[in-house]
Amino acid sequence: MGYSIVVASNTKSKLAHLTKICEEDYEKKLQNVLERRMGAEEFKKYRNEYMSSYDPELQISRKFLPVNTITLNLSDKCNFKCKMCDVPSLSQKQNIETKSAEEYLEFASEIGVKCCIIGSGSEVTLSHNWKEIVAKSLELFPDVVLFTNGSIISLKDIEWLSDLGLARIFFSLDSAYKETFEIIRGYNLLEQIEKKIHHVVSYRESKNRPSPLVRVSFVKQEVNSSEQEVFIQKWLGKVDSIELQDLIDLDNMFVDNIDNEIDYLKEKNVKPWCHYPFAYSCLWSNGAVSPCCTPYGRDMLDITYTNVQSIRDWKSQLESNQKILRQKFTSQDWDQLPSTCKHCLVKQIKNRLHQED
Ligand SMILES: C[S@@+](CC[C@H](N)C(=O)[O-])C[C@H]1O[C@@H](n2cnc3c(N)ncnc32)[C@H](O)[C@@H]1O
Fold first, then answer.
1. Is 306 in the pocket of ligand 1 (CB under 6 A)?
2. Is the CB–ligand 1 distance for residue 143 below 6 Å?
3. 317 Cβ below 6 A of ligand 1
């Protein structure tokens, strides 16, 4: 069966985190969902601005555009035990206060954010207030995206989300077979979760609506390496996108001899770039806001902009620290970057070179 592959990354800096596979044009489907909510012009502007965050040259001239995507994590809890993930071992078990989360959502809406991604860093359906927050987000943003492992969400919840206007829902599966699912994700629940995924599609079809768009994802690792193609063929044409993601090796997030590595990249004239400070602003369950939704963004203080729970003047602190980080990136000078960004970028470049070998 034929399919199109989009490497959803900065083709200029060639930092490929993921490969998106779709039978039909995903952007057209998203356009079909969002144009009726925001109009054709606004949709075009939204997607162009998002795509432009991957382009250093465009950002150098447009660096003060507000971000258009936020992420929101209500807690740091997860009920799964995915072998490649550190969320289940986080000891803090923090929950953001509903009031703080809502203030952040309102602020984001005021500055023109269009996309709100809920639950990308933990399991949102474990939070007592998850529906309240999703409903509030749907009032404020046209493109609301929910991440879930699919274990707790019910068929009724799926219908409620669809009726309310959820634009996209992402299920992480990482496997085509139930045995592999259990090894990677810790529980024998693949078949139950698959039924829920099919229900999202059949319910939306029964209502003759184009959303929510459905994504299934697959983090590439040794244990599932032989079933990647089976996974693609299993879901192609059944959901709207299949995403193959590179594994982040959480035991090796920092690079030895970083200064030598950077000297080497400078010699090769490789300039640093990351789209996150230009496109994203991420709220974590302890109230911290950072530029990216990776474990670096969650844990590292040198890229934390502010804290919505402990800093009274968090809005202006967020804006000024974001501006400073953007200036560092638009300088395209490795020496100006925060240490965390240096490690993350060097790691990605090394992985990419390794894959190309
Ligand atoms: C941390 S989970 C949280 C959201 C939700 N509970 C879920 O399972 O989708 C978000 C995504 O990160 C992926 N993930 C977890 N650990 C990873 C790692 N070490 N490298 C790359 N992706 C990872 C998961 O497979 C999932 O797609």
1. no
2. no
3. no
| Any atom of ligand 1 within 6 Å of the Cβ of 152 | no
Query: Average pLDDT over the chain, rounded to whole?
Result: 92
- Indicate the range of 85-94, 141-150, 290-299 predicted with least confidence: 85-94
Domains of the chain: 4-356 (3.20.20.70)
What is the pLDDT confidence band of residue 352, given thresholds at 50, 70 and 90?
Answer: confident
Specify burial of residue 335 (Cβ count, 10 A radius: 0-12, 13-18, 19+).
exposed
Whether 154 shows a pLDDT value over 60: the answer reads yes
pLDDT tens-digit series, residues 161-185? 999 999 999 999 999 999 999 999 9
CA of 24 to the centre of ligand 1 (A): 25
Q: Are 150 and 193 in contact (CB under 8 A)?
A: yes
Q: Which of 38, 63, 120, 97 is nearest to 290 (CA)?
A: 120
Q: Report d(CA 308, CA 124) in Å as an integer.
A: 19
Cα–Cα distances (Å) from 89 to 78, 85, 269, in that order, read 9, 8, 39
Pocket test for ligand 1, best of 86, 172, 190 (most atoms within 8 A of CB): 172
Q: pTM (2 decimals)?
A: 0.94
